[in-house]
Amino acid sequence: MKVLIVGGGGREHALAWKLHRAKKVKQIYAAPGNPGIAQIGTCVNILASDIPGLARFAEEKKIDLTVVGPELPLAMGIVDEFQKRGLKIFGPDKKASRIEADKSFAREFMNKFGIPAPKFQVYETAHEARRYTKTINKFPVVVKASGLAGGKGTFIVNNRKEYEKVVDELLVQHRLGEAGKRIVVEEFLVGQEMSVFVLTDGLSIVYLPSAQDHKRLYDRNRGPNTGGMGAYAPYPTNKRITNIIEQVIIQPTILSLRDQGIDYQGVLYAGLIITSLGPMVLEFNCRFGDPETQVILPLIEGDFFTPLLAVAEKRLSEINLKVKNLWSICVVLASAGYPFDYHIGEEIQFKQKLDSKTLLFHAGTKMEDSHLVTASGRVLNVVTVYENLKIAKQRAYEEIKKIHFNGMYYRKDIGNTGMKKMKRKRRR
């Protein structure tokens, strides 16, 4: 079987690594890919947004399955184009991708069908948005650009001055362009965040390991939001919370999408917050998370190609997915200045050889004059898998000491929340 992976970050490297291990997969292509993927497959110089180019390539190479990593090509309709040409592809179509691509649509959908979520308001002009401070006027509050903003469209504001500044930047200065032409103002909720992933062909559902992402730049969840500074899996929870997630959030969402004429096929990613009132949906995404994918895939037993193909062929009911009884942790190594202005082109050096059990996924690297250099804000993902979360964390940070590039930055507390939750469980 030949597989094409669309994208070129850490998530796509993790997908390539997992699919490469499947006996059925004989050739992996990635567009555009990265130097890490190039070690196990063939990188193709086609952008993830070049849908006609990707479709032509899939036809020429007789690709058996295309797996889409990022949200942009999904929102642009890559699945629709591939299906029109009779090409098998994993991911939701353009209509279904609105669950992520249009946050106002997602919030209105959740409200209509009773999916637990924060209270919200949608505004299209600065004049309308300023009414919030004259009516509700409750802080802190979350302001989100309704469209796709590459992880830069969520703002937690603590007072009226900050709120008006964000409103001005999005709706007057148009800092995020089309993505910010409409904003969603949401109630600020307190609790632990949790990422839940399911495969679905529109009818059947297969649950993947849960995870917890660390979105803020600095330790103890301080600083600006990022695309994700690290993750661990599984997220420790209890049967009551799990049942609520399955019966009140995931199953009703997929069934309600069908009621709306949306046949959702692919992975549904629910970003949840576990509040004192129970789990609530912070966001739905139409693709695998990054960096959650990097910690989830190592926990899945055996072949991952078969379930992805089963989704594309609408026969997911045949799949019985098994999960290892292990813990996985990922620490993101980022460029200084990320998520704002950051320098690229710094040479990446390995002072010692990494342990054979350590997984290293390339997130933003490139080859320059035969040297591996930084090419983005998030550069590398260091992943370790052990029977104990504490050991997994210790080993990950020991391995990071072997890597160096100028301005390398990473959080030091990835996994701490999970260890605290496990301690509390043991005390009970």
Tell me what the structure shows:
The chain has 428 residues and is α+β, with helices and mostly antiparallel strands. It has four domains: 2-90, 3-Layer(aba) Sandwich (Rossmann fold); 119-187, ATP-grasp fold, A domain (Dna Ligase, domain 1), CATH 3.30.1490; 190-318, ATP-grasp fold, B domain (D-amino Acid Aminotransferase, Chain A, domain 1); 327-427, Alpha-Beta Complex (Glycinamide Ribonucleotide Synthetase, Chain A, domain 4), CATH 3.90.600.10. Helix content is 30%, strand content 27%. The protein has 14 helices and 24 strands. The strands form seven sheets. Strands 3-2-1-4-5 form a five-stranded parallel β-sheet. A five-stranded antiparallel β-sheet has the order 12-15-18-23-20. Strand 1, helix 1 (10-20) and strand 2 form a beta-alpha-beta unit.
As a percent range, the share of helical residues equals 25-40%
**Could you list the spans in which at least 5 consecutive residues all have pLDDT below 50?**
none
What is the third-level CATH name, the topology of the largest domain? D-amino Acid Aminotransferase, Chain A, domain 1
Q: How does the helix and strand content classify structurally?
A: alpha+beta
Number of helices: 14
Q: Outline, from the CA principal axes?
A: globular
Strand order of the largest sheet: 3-2-1-4-5
Would you spell out the secondary-structure blueprint of this structure?
Elements: E1 2-7, H1 10-20, E2 27-32, E3 42-43, H2 51-60, E4 65-68, H3 71-76, H4 78-84, E5 89-90, H5 98-101, H6 103-113, E6 120-123, H7 126-129, H8 131-134, E7 141-145, E8 154-157, H9 160-172, E9 183-187, E10 192-200, E11 205-207, E12 212-213, E13 216-218, E14 222-225, E15 230-233, H10 239-259, E16 266-275, E17 278-285, H11 292-296, H12 305-312, E18 327-334, E19 349-350, E20 359-362, E21 365-368, E22 371-374, E23 378-386, H13 389-400, E24 403-404, H14 416-427
Parallel strand pairs: 1-2, 1-4, 2-3, 4-5
Antiparallel strand pairs: 6-9, 7-8, 7-9, 10-11, 10-16, 12-15, 13-14, 15-18, 16-17, 18-23, 19-24, 20-23, 21-22
